[in-house]
Amino acid sequence: MPTLHLSSIPYLEPFLFGAAFLLLLGVLSSTASSRMSVPILAFFIVVGMLAGSEGIGGIAFNDFRLTYSLGTIALIFILFAGGMESKWSIVRPVLAPGILLATVGVVVTSVLMGLSATLIFGLTPLQGQLLGAIVASTDAAAVFAVLKAKSLRLRGRILPMLELESGSNDPMAVFLTFVITQICLTPNLSLLSFAPHLVLQIVIGVLVGYLVGRGAVRVINQVVLDYEGLYPVVTIGTAILSYSATQMLGGSGFLAVYVTGLIMGSRSFLHKVTLLQFHDGLAWLMQVTMFVVLGLLVFPSKLMDVAIPGLVLSIILIFVARPLAVLCALLPIASLTIRKKLFIGWVGLRGAVPIVLATIPMNAGVEGADLIFNIVFFIVLASLLIHGTTIRFAAKFFDVLIAGKLPLVERRVASNMFEVVLEQSSLMLNKRVVDIGIPTTALIVLLTRGRDTFIPRGSTVLEAGDKLLIASRKNDVSDLQELFKH
């Protein structure tokens, strides 16, 4: 009987070597990215393009089905990690504007971009709307990465609003892309006939995501595993289960995964800090892999054919479609000033999601899909370079940036005690102690307000300048820093 040796599998070692080289090259280029204020994700795309068939690497890759599958897996873990890093107590106040941005904002952007693409590229109205749907949503991976890298302190609740929008607007874009692709193949269908299905997708996605998130926390806290290394396996399985179960039930798997992460991130469970760090690293691996693969898919020579009209369409997206969509979506939210709305309109980064969605009409054989893919890729690259490099400038220009250092834990009093000072910009102000969401294993021991020092009750309302002395476990430090930095 012949024996199979690992070395007998053709091209395995060169493939592994190439993959490792591209990953490390992309990561090491992040230092140059920081110095040049260019989003690191743009570097990963360039690395992929250089390694592609028209680059110095000469790697021929054009498998759009595999790309869509890889993109789906990557988005599962990116959205799960983004949800875990959020807190329900922070997301809840921005739920209404976040939902409006994720629905109305996506639809308005889709329509405006579809009309523009039809006029500029001479596409049919249906092809134009397909392109508009593909580029309509902001990208969670790009938004999370850029906002984290810039370490911006924004006025009010702009930051959680942007994170909620980017984490929850993919279902609408995915739905529109699938439906319009189907209409392209079967013209007698209508968009309105799919509306009940959209509502069902959202309801199932939220419900399954909530149940899986609650169940995962209970399992982690009550089932004692013999090896700590198994806990990341549990959370990986949780993310995949949330997505796959929801999809099989006819819901939005991406929305379910984000909700699952959000529910888990808002509760205390064993090894939470370690698991957050693990999934942050896994999300970065997914981002790096996807942007390199997407770079491999593109032929630079074809991009040049759509460069000028693609640039015009990108400018329309950045300066017209996205701002107008945000203004329309947030029209009922009177508490947001026009400056804040315009800044939110500026943070409309596109990333891996539109490019992955562009593979759907490619796989379905829609006429003009190849042109649409190249246009989408150009728009994504332009958005990363323009949006990503100007976010801090835009925050200053629209006067939504708070100067100074983050109001984090200021100093360690003892091995398990910390002092926190609440600044004027803190979201903890005017909240009762019981409502601020500190971990159940942490306790506010003393509160100093001016010359008065007292033990706060759950009903004590926090004020600017309050100094809190908090006793906690070491494992709670990361959660406390995350909580008090907003």
Write the layout of secondary structure elements.
Blueprint: H1 12-28, H2 30-36, H3 40-51, H4 64-84, H5 88-91, H6 95-121, H7 125-134, H8 140-150, H9 158-168, H10 170-185, H11 195-222, H12 231-248, H13 253-265, H14 272-297, H15 300-305, H16 307-329, H17 338-346, H18 352-364, H19 369-397, E1 411-414, E2 417-421, E3 443-449, E4 452-454, E5 467-471, H20 477-484
Antiparallel strand pairs: 1-2, 2-5, 3-4, 3-5
Short description, anyone?
Helices cover 64% and strands 5% of the residues.
How would you describe the overall organization of this protein?
This protein has 20 helices and 5 strands. By secondary structure, the chain is mostly helical. The protein folds into 2 domains: 64-397, Na+/H+ antiporter like fold (Up-down Bundle), CATH 1.20.1530; 411-484, 2-Layer Sandwich (Alpha-Beta Plaits), CATH 3.30.70.1450. A 5-stranded antiparallel beta sheet has the order 1-2-5-3-4, with no helix packed on it. Helix 1 packs antiparallel against helix 3 (40-51). The relative contact order is 0.14. Mean pLDDT is 81; it is low at 4-9 and 405-414.
